[in-house]
Amino acid sequence: MAIRTQPVANPAGVIAVGTTYVQPRRPSRALRREGQLAYALLTPTLLVVLFLVAYPFGAAIYLSVQDKMVGAPGRWVGLANYMELFRDDVFLRTAWNSVVYTVVAVALKFVLGLTMALVLDQERRFNNFFRTLLFVPWAVPVVIVALNWRWIFDDLSGFLNNFLITTHLSSNIISWLSDPGLAMGCVIAVVVWAGTPFYSMTFLAGLQAIPRELYEAAEIDGASIVQQFVHITVPRLRTIFLTTVMLSTIWTATNLQFVLVLTRGGPSSRTEIFPHLAYTTALGARRLGMGAAVSLVFFPLLAVLIFFLTRRMLRQADE
Amino acid sequence: MRTVSSTRRVMRWIGNGLLVVLLVWTLVPFYWMVATSLKKDKEIYGFEATLVPRQPTLANYTRLFATTPFVKYVRNSTIIAVSTTVLSLVFGCLGAYALARLRFPGRRLIARGLVFTYLVPPALLFIPLFAVMSFLRLVDTHQALILAYLSFSVPFCTWLLMGYFRSVPLELEEAALVDGCTRLGSLVRIILPMSLPALAVVAFFSFTQSWNEFLYANVFVNSVEVRTITTGLTLFVVEDVFFWGPMMGASFLSALPPLLLYLIFQRWVVKGLTLGAVKG
């Protein structure tokens, strides 16, 4: 990005992309008018951001230090909500579950998404058609995905048990979602099914931007497929990898629809994760203050991700 | 040279094998959804359950339209998603133009704030927003959901459109401005016509996100009259008993609008994702 010390000669006052202006000491009248127009145009957007995001965010912090219940005024309790959380076994189990759930789901989506992208990057007839099919889960509403899978996992009549018994792969019924050892795995499988296309889409876009000549040159020099992957593909995709993983981590960690529809956190809190615990605390037990505390506990971790992502996305927009 | 072409062939076969596995993994759940919706109850439950419908029937669909508020849910979802989309487009265009083309103090800060806002997850905001909606007496209204959806839709639209507007050549606009066109005039006459595909993509994202939204819809709305399709679907469960036939029918039908839009826009979806979220 070029930093120019003089404003670009530009009678219309149009800002050029990729240039940084050094503001004149005293803004000219034209410039002031431009500023007023800009803020007038941005008013609706700013109102939305202030009242529907910034204010609620502040309110969440304020709620979390009160013992507010639904429909009743709250009383200041300081950090009591947070103290109570850290003494609570369910909360500690939830913290562990959330980490396992997020890390495993993101890792699997990454591996599967990259595989899908590499497969689709090969030359083949009808490739566009296959790509369309493989990306379809991305377009289906998450609740529908979760409901559909709940039915697939159904004990007595679901597809999985039905299929396993018809093909004699298993002789007894498996309780996929109510078995303490299986439930989390099942939830993660559904999250991966729904989330993989986002990875493959961005990875495939990255793969297709790599010039073919690089691979041809490497091949002539005798580089193996693995070497080509490690020395050409991976470095070229590094930024996409990072951005995709960060975005997906935020969305995966905070999505409660899968757990809500599939297991409601059960059996005995085995699949309880932060957003769902906040939901049941605030609306099931009607403890709004406590619910806000639960949802805020995991925010510092997310904030780090959001901070880096924001910087990255702004930098990319400037390029 | 022979070894190279043989590794190529091996890679191609591995790729084709993986493709088949991935297709099965992706498509079986859809098959099960559609197959279930076409079965009689006898084939859905218990020991006579089948993998393939023996006597396909549309009975579940007629039941859906005749005895459930499905149509009402679809109507509510449409009203809310369309209103959100229109408002976000208008707000987004105005804001994006200012950010892309005008000089003013705080420009970078606002751009940063927008991205940040877009990334703050609803799971964090739904509790205080519920308090806000109760305070404004908006619980159980369409407006509550429209407002709530604007909170993610407007930042996203503004951000995406800003990227597109910047790519419209400056010279065109300068010429218009020199000829005495106002700023708003040049936005309407020059930038917008050149960004029609972008507007379509942004509208698509905004509509699908609103149509698919579940958390806010579940928290801010209780009555059947206002319920959207995503939360309405979960009501097919009565006392832990699921009516899977009509439910899978309803699931299939309500997944259709976003699916069809995806099929129409898919060429631009990837571009949109890479511009708005993952440009790089």
Question: Summed up, what is this model?
Answer:
The complex is a heterodimer of chains A (319) and B (280). Chain A has helices at residues 29-64, 80-87, 89-121, 127-135, 142-152, 159-166, 183-208, 212-220, 225-254, 257-262, 274-284, 288-297, 299-318, and strands at 2-3, 19-20. With 319 residues, chain A is mainly alpha-helical.
Give the arrangement of secondary structure elements.
The complex is a heterodimer of chains A (319) and B (280).
Chain A: E1 2-3, E2 19-20, H1 29-64, H2 80-87, H3 89-121, H4 127-135, H5 142-152, H6 159-166, H7 183-208, H8 212-220, H9 225-254, H10 257-262, H11 274-284, H12 288-297, H13 299-318
Parallel strand pairs in A: 1-2
Chain B: H1 2-37, H2 41-44, H3 59-67, H4 70-101, H5 107-119, H6 122-135, H7 142-166, H8 170-178, H9 183-194, H10 196-212, H11 215-220, H12 229-233, E1 237-238, E2 241-242, H13 244-277
Antiparallel strand pairs in B: 1-2
